[in-house]
Amino acid sequence: MWTWRQGRHMGEDGPMPEMPEVQGLVDFLGERAAGRTVRRAQVAAISALKTYDPLLDALVDREISDVTRRGKFAVIAAGAELHLVFHLAKAGWLRWYEKLPATVIKPGRSPIALRVALDDGSGFDLTEAGTKKSLAVYVVRDPADVPGVARLGPDPLDDAFTRDAFARILAGRRTQIKGLLRDQSIIAGIGNAYSDEILHAARMSPYALAAERSEAEIDRLYEAMRTTLGAAVKAASGRPPADLKDAKRRGMAVHGRSGETCPICGDTVRSVYFADRSLEYCPTCQTGGKTLADRRLSRLLK
Questions:
Q1: Could you confirm whether 295 is annotated as catalytic?
Q2: pTM
Q3: Which residue in 5, 72, 245, 248 is the catalytic one?
Q4: 2-150 under CATH 3.20.190.10, yes or no
Q5: 129, 130, 229, 280: which sits with the fewest CB atoms below 10 Å from its CB?
């Protein structure tokens, strides 16, 4: 059994998956599930299923034709007319089985939210730990019928997402660059971890205002985004799901490394904590040596 867990923030089981890890997961599922026929689809956590038309049972006896990614969403195509779309959110897992267990799922008494059985005996579970249930599953005729997918901005590694296209996104936006990179409606797939890594590589403060970036800074930020995400996708490629979160963690220069040494300059990596997450940065590389105030203690420094 391969297990891939979506980790949780601030030092729990591992970093949450973003575009590179979802791409690795999609590649893994595509290699094993494409060409297989769905024999059973069973929901065990009704809160996870966000749609009712088409019914989940409509997937049964359909052949999986493709597995793709939209931002942080995985899209399983069951022919051209039906799609199973899921987003693992903060505490989701995917467990792949070469031989699916015969145990009966007991709703409300198991972390399993969804089980999909395939015609060769293999299959997978989507599970969710903890009490805050955010994992989302959709059965739709078109992936764009999922509101989160419909709102997605451009993919940062798409060939059409040029430096000039990026500059147009930044222009006129008086918002902090960290928040802009994380906004899925502006750029799809980047989350808390990779926005930290991109800003570190670009030598830019997370609080820098998007609209005030110089041409040279835009060049640097665009190159950092493409390089950082491209390397992460390559690192995730071909890995079994169980290895994805550890590969992500090992590749981080600053995210999740508060108190450790910056690999570029040797300064100490610092954190700023928010209600449900933290950001990490290097003062020497990114803020001219200035330490950003921890929101738990005082107001943020501009």
A1: no
A2: 0.88
A3: 72
A4: yes
A5: 130
